[in-house]
Amino acid sequence: QVQLVESGGGLVQAGDSLRLSCAASGRTFSLYSMGWFRQAPGKEREFVAVIRWNGGRTLYADAVKGRCTISRDDAKRMVYLQMNSLKPEDTAVYYCAARLVPFGEVSLTVTDFGSWGQGTQVTVSS
Length: 126
Known about the structure:
Mean pLDDT: 95
Low-confidence stretches: none
Strand content: over 45%
Largest sheet: 7 strands, mixed
Structural class: mainly beta
Distance between the termini: 39 Å
Number of strands: 11
Shape: globular
Number of helices: 0
Helix content: under 10%
């Protein structure tokens, strides 16, 4: 089991950048593909980005492609989401999540992830 704590959210203006961080605990962190999801008020939780357990593959939602970069540092047990050129429609609570199974392939599906953080709020003003 992996425990996750997100940080780095805040209130920014359109066009600004933020880097979200996710601190993981648990000896087997490096075995899990990790994802970022977000949920805006009144909307379903949606996929943002995912990185394979070995860092060898990443996927991004079309809405953030070209503006966001997911990365991981297994030695520090950290996952990051660098977000640039932020837009008001990026406003949401952002969640870090770990795949249900070790060595799992990248996935865009919420139900494929079994460990979730508490979320960090990102608010982008126009």
